[in-house]
Fold this sequence. Notes:
Blueprint: H1 2-23, E1 68-69, H2 89-96, E2 108-112, H3 127-136, E3 141-145, H4 147-157, H5 162-170, H6 174-188, E4 191-194, E5 198-200, E6 219-221, E7 223-225, H7 232-235, E8 241-242, E9 246-249, H8 254-272, H9 284-287, H10 290-301, E10 307-308, E11 328-330, E12 333-335, H11 338-341, E13 360-362, H12 370-373, H13 378-381
One 2-acetamido-2-deoxy-beta-D-glucopyranose binds near residues 265, 266, 292 and 295.
Amino acid sequence: MLTFRRALIVAACFICMLYLVTRSHTSLPTDRIPPQDSLHNQKNNNNVDAQTTRTGHVPTTSSYDNRLPLKKPNAGSQQLLQDMSKASLRDKLAYQFPYDVEKKFPAYIWQTWKYTPASGEFGENFRPAEASWSEKHPGFIHEVITDQVAVHLLRHLYASVPEVLDAYQSLPLPVLKADFFRYLILLARGGIYSDIDTYALKSAAEWLPDNVPREAIGLVVGIEADPDREDWAMWYSRRIQFCQWTIQAKAGHPVLREIVANITEETLHKKKTGLLKNFKDNKVIEFTGPAVWTDTIFDFMNDERYFDMSTSKGNITWRDFTGMTAAKKVGDLVVLPITSFSPGVQQMGAEDYDHPMAFVKHEFEGTWKPENLRHIGATDEGKR
Ligand SMILES: *[C@@H]1O[C@H](CO)[C@@H](O)[C@H](O)[C@H]1NC(C)=O
Ligand SMILES: *[C@@H]1O[C@H](CO)[C@@H](O)[C@H](O)[C@H]1NC(C)=O
């Protein structure tokens, strides 16, 4: 009886894996040369600021940075790598998951949870949120990946980069794995990642303003916090914090590659030095959560491997995003205003759920109480 049930579960897992793997296999380029980050080859669309939406509700503002994407990349990954085993982690990831900005955004919705929606233990309170993604995205493949299935899926996707798997398996808390998983699945497959307690209010087809060409964008992020107050550092780890409960990306985006490499290296280093034991909840935000996510995004925007800085007026910082009410575009990256992914928080300029720019509704479960604010990301995932 027991063995039969187990066999059934294993078979179900296997079929699910097979389905994911085969459905999601995009055709590989025939010439397996290391990826050219297509953003380098982008047409000159740097100056187009995404300031209007189809709703017309947002103010139009002038251009905000004149940063040009590089025509020719000078990243180290450009030499033909004969022997990938000797390549750096970042080069291996770039080779394995080439980035092509001109491809369509993959029609996937990825979520993770302890249980599948088919399970009685899934949680009645998450069902409407989970269903909202399917309802708003007909034709998309929508997967809720359990922790057990995640291991198998990642083993397949990252077979040739074993240090990533080692890092994933070494992470001591489910919240760390959940954080890491979102970057891993988006780097490998692209699409939308969203937390299980997050509702889709609008289809992703409406997230980008009409005047932004989809074939020029590879990453869409929202703002989690923009605390315009003297004592912001008491409550937040960064003056502007990008959220990671909802992300849309094309596979191979350099920001995802960098954060996967960063977390992998940090994890393996901590493992070696014994720092993973007794890892504290309140460090999650810096290790895998919104702090490192925010830093990685800013580093990308200021990276001369991706942008021609010669015409730039200086580094892009939080000042470029504070108080913004319309989407902003930096190269192939779009940052949505706080209302889009954090509506209804009743502070920091966020509008309510019924605002035309409100795209997802994230359940904060009381994390907006000041004493919890610094740990958003940690407490937020404490539900797991
Ligand atoms: C990871 O990113 C953080 C930025 O938040 C940086 O301080 C750290 O040095 C990076 N680590 C690695 C190994 O790249
Ligand atoms: C600009 O940003 C880059 C990458 O984050 C950093 O290395 C550099 O020191 C910054 N420059 C200034 C002037 O802040």
